Amino acid sequence: MNFHGGQFKRDGLSDFSVNIPYLPLEETYKNLLIRSIDKLGNYPEIDGKQAREALSYYLNWPVDQIVLGNGATDLIYLVSRALKFKSAMVLEPTFTEYRRALAQSGTTVYDYVLESDTGFYLNCEKLAEAINTTGCNALFICNPNNPTGQLFTPSEIESILQSVMIEPFLLVIDESFIEFKERPEHHEAMRQLMARYNILVIRSMTKTFCVPGLRIGYLFGNEVCIELVKSFRDPWALNRFALESIPYFLADKRHLEQLQNWCDVESTYMSATLSKFERIEVFDGKANFVLIKLNHPNPIKWHEALIQKGFYLRTCLDFSGLGASYFRIAIKDRLSNDALIDAMKETLL
To answer: Largest CB tally within 10 Å, which of 54, 227, 243, 247?
Structure first.
């Protein structure tokens, strides 16, 4: 099992390692789950057709080119298992499950590591050159990227795809954090790219709708690849609660508006406030978390002191290209954010 946020448990601990918002669930949604209990004696749809139809309307994408998953991570492993890439490249530092899923499927994995000294600047030409040199037939990226928070634009993505000479070649994009900001132009530009290039997109409703215990993800994109992935998809991948939640979530526009407003306000506030610390470098992020680099002789000891005050951050020792000085901080409500900031001030004196 790889290390992830949320694994350190202690009573009274304020956990900033989990990048899932804590917006309260609506009573109407709770009632939906309660009503679903009466249906547990029946099998759910084997392929979640009604849920996929709701997603098709939401995405403006053909229903037969959508696959449901038990969370985004399930789909990462499913894609790796179904498509069996000979070799693939992972844009680092990023979510560690891409490498693990690919390696389990017998894929040779190459890293392309962006440097923190350049603010994780992406040179599209050099990345494409690395893909051409290694002969990789797939590239995995997270957008916005976890843990750096950077957003790769459709123009950057197209520049990479135009320069890759390997055939066949597939771009797999994990967009688990894409909906934390309002990006209509980005989504439209990506739809146009997906019509012209071999692209698969993975999204997580788990994060967007604050239900990590439910596990809901979906995959859409290139028709040929989707058909192959579907042939490897386990039947009844999602349970009754998850399938009935999908249409409800997609129709709940108010939640998305509240989520995006909260993320805009609190991520801006957290980044601006932490930037005032002399011993902290803040990386400009486009998601619901902030990556920092700590100028401290013993960052691990500092984090232990912070834990003693009741606050836990996501360490970055397992991310390629990062290390003990880096921490990912999830965004919470203003009261919780201020409490963490106060504790950081006290421990950095």
So the answer is: 243
